[in-house]
Amino acid sequence: MMSEWLALREDADAAARATELLDPLRASLPDGPLVIRDLGCGTGANLRWLAPRLPGPQRWILHDHDAELLALATAGTVSAADGTPVTTQTNHSDLTRLCPADLAGTSLLTASALLDLLREAAVESLAEACCAARCPALLTLSVAGRVELAPADPLDAEIAAAFNDHQRRDGLLGPDAPAVTAAAFRRRGREVLSRPSPWRLGAGQADLTARWLTEWCEAAVEQRPDLATDVEDYLRRRLRACAAGRLRVTVDHVDLLAR
For the chain, what are the domain ranges? Predict the structure, then answer.
């Protein structure tokens, strides 16, 4: 289930986020109550991480196409940096169809682990709407296409390349998303700050590593069926190393602040 995957990755996401973007973000926000829109909010991890690091009062508008995830996102209580309780409302909609009018009165647009799932037209539309509304955008944890496993294996690079091609299927941006998004905002006159936000997975994240590794390999084989036999043996070896605490994985992501 998607909710289980999101719960499994939340701590790794929190540890990876580029905290050096927080000061320039705060400097970009208007005075007074904040209206923050979270696109593709999932179970609310972005809300839980970011809201306590920004001043209050805050009202979050949580956008997602999955009603069950929206219910989970609003189940808990979150407070702003000054202790003010954050208020939330949900928007069950197609977030790729935002227009400038939808963002009227928005203080900040944010999204996490979303951009690589979009097509270029959706990113252009998002940048246009955000710039027209004159609000900053914090877009975090976008897959960058670079993976490093230790100890290394001769198949690592081939599986990574197949996975990246799978991420680009049907015109999705995949690992090209950070560069495409930054360019879309810069063409519209925005300053874009980019910082790495890598997952660093070791023995303490064995469950997440095993789940990520399995799905990474499955996607690679879906893209390159000729790899199936070799990847089956590769995955078996890698999962044994993971269970024994001998595998280290770095999965590169990128955080962007457009202001």
Answer: 2-258
Which residues are within 8 A (CB) of 157 and not within 5 positions of it... i.e. 6 or more apart? none
Contact 138, 26 (CB under 8 A): no
Query: Phi, psi (5° rounding) for residue 47?
Result: -60, -50
Any idea what DSSP says for residue 218?
H
**Closest of 233, 241, 56, 40 to residue 141, by C-alpha:** 40
- Give every CB contact of residue 181 below 8 A, 6+ residues apart in sequence: 115, 123, 126, 127, 139, 142, 173, 256
Residue 97, both tokens = 């169809």
pLDDT band of residue 46 (cuts 50, 70, 90) is very high
94 contacts: CB under 8 Å, gap ≥ 6? 65
Q: Calculate mean pLDDT across residues 243-255.
A: 98
What predicted TM-score, i.e. pTM, was given to this entire model?
Answer: 0.95
Q: 2-258 — its CATH code?
A: 3.40.50.150
Question: Is residue 163 a contact partner of residue 219, using CB atoms and an 8 Å limit?
Answer: yes
63 touches 39 (CB < 8 A)? yes
Strand 248-258 versus strand 199-201 pairing type? antiparallel
Tell me the residue ranges of DSSP E strands in the chain: 34-39, 58-64, 87-92, 108-112, 137-150, 192-196, 199-201, 248-258
pLDDT tens for each residue of 142-186: 999 999 999 999 999 999 999 999 999 999 999 999 999 999 999
pLDDT, tens digit (0-9, with 9 covering 90-100), for 53-107 = 999 999 999 999 898 999 999 988 999 999 999 999 998 876 667 778 889 899 9
**Cα(70)–Cα(43) distance, integer angstroms:** 6
